[in-house]
Task: structure prediction
Amino acid sequence: MARDRQYRLAIVQFGRMLHENGFVAATDGNLSVRLDDKHVLVTPTCISKGRMRASDMVIVDMDGKRLTGKRRVSTEIAMHLLIYRLRPDVHGIVHAHPPTATGFAASGYDLNRPLVCEVVVGLGSIPLARYGTPGTPELTDALEPLIPHHDAILMANHGVVTFGSSLESAYMKMETVEHFAKIALVTHLLGNEQPLGEKEVEKLHQVRHRYNGGAAPRKPVAADDLQTDGLQSDNEPKETAGSRR
Ligand SMILES: [Zn+2]
Result:
């Protein structure tokens, strides 16, 4: 139970950081931790992520059924459970609406361009999943093909979901995505984008693979993607990896 308490306090802490950083407004966003192979600790719905208490959290089983907690479980629980099912290496998930990255997602842009070496090493690429109504299978269907190969996904006209080996790791990836979105926007405004070349990206993927050790396989950014995805100077939104139009 001591560990349960520790995870509750971690959700409180990272929820507060999401709110303080402006990554969520009002009662937006949700966070969860995998407690074991049958239980997930998750934030309730209709509560500010900036002012949660440890006792507000809900424990659900892998079907999303509430086992403990007084509040109603997050409406996005199906998205969390899908990620835990597809990625045994994942133990923490964060969903938020950081304004810059969500602006990309609302403009039909992914964040796949290799503009910053550390982002290529840390996240590989950040694809855009097609739009799906929150809390419905439309959304989980759009995310499903992307989850095995990515740790951060933009959700069209909605927000961002990040996941990692711990809640802290998932939260840090959310910060990286929003920071990188700001960099990508400034790069675009300056009008002289200089993405890393194919060879440089390949070397960074080798570093990334070493960092990840035996973790789930990651799809590298394909050379073709480097030239066609992301924020383009012609402002043409491109077909995305999650598209099934
Ligand atoms: Zn949301």
About this structure: The pocket of zinc ion is lined by residues 28, 95, 97, 134, 158-159 (CB under 6 Å). The beta strands are 30-36, 39-42, 58-60, 66-68, 92-96, 128-129, 152-155, 159-164. Residues 167-190 form the longest helix (24 residues).
